[in-house]
Amino acid sequence: MRNDMLNDPQVLAEISAAFYRYEQALVSNDTDTLDALFWHDARTVRYGATENLYGIEQIRAFRAARPSAGLDRQLSNTVITTYGDSMAVASTEFRRAGSEKVGRQMQTWVKMEDGWRIVAAHVSLMA
């Protein structure tokens, strides 16, 4: 891929807005927005810290059952890279108050007809 296709400022601004919209929805447990930002497809995958979710229905069920307390977190080392005008990867680390563990999150985003959607996500924790 040519370097001029990476991180076009307009595309980077769009996906950054979507990423931070997701983050705000996550810490406020806004499940409607979280759902809206995932691709509504059986091929969507989310590997969590303790669960493997295949398809939007499993992701929705997980969100509905997840406790809504203690979701605040601090992000660090966030890197968002766009590839052309319709694909991006967002990577970040996070910490939660009272925990020594470092969380890691990666999301693959694709621009669909109705906007940017997460097609694959991975969350993990390390000591």
User: Which term fits the overall shape?
Assistant: globular
Q: Oligomeric form of this entry?
A: single chain
- Low-pLDDT runs of 5+ residues are none
CATH architecture: Roll
Radius of gyration: 15 Å
Quick check: average pLDDT?
Answer: 95
Give the domain tally.
1
Estimated structural class: alpha+beta
End-to-end gap: 36 Å
InterPro entries: AtzH-like (IPR024507), NTF2-like_dom_sf (IPR032710)
Pfam family, one: AtzH-like
Protein name: Oxalurate catabolism protein HpxZ
Description:
- This protein is α+β, with helices and mostly antiparallel strands.
- It has a single domain, classed as Nuclear Transport Factor 2, Chain: A (Roll), CATH 3.10.450.50.
- Helix content is 28%, strand content 38%.
- It contains three helices and six strands; from the N terminus they run ααββαββββ.
- The protein has helices at residues 9-27, 31-37, 56-65, and strands at residues 45-47, 52-54, 74-83, 87-95, 102-112, 115-126.
- A six-stranded mixed beta sheet has the order 2-1-6-5-4-3.
- Helix 1 runs antiparallel to helix 2 (31-37).
- The protein is globular, with a radius of gyration of 15 Å.
- The chain starts with 8 loop residues before the first helix and ends with a strand.
- The mean pLDDT is 95.
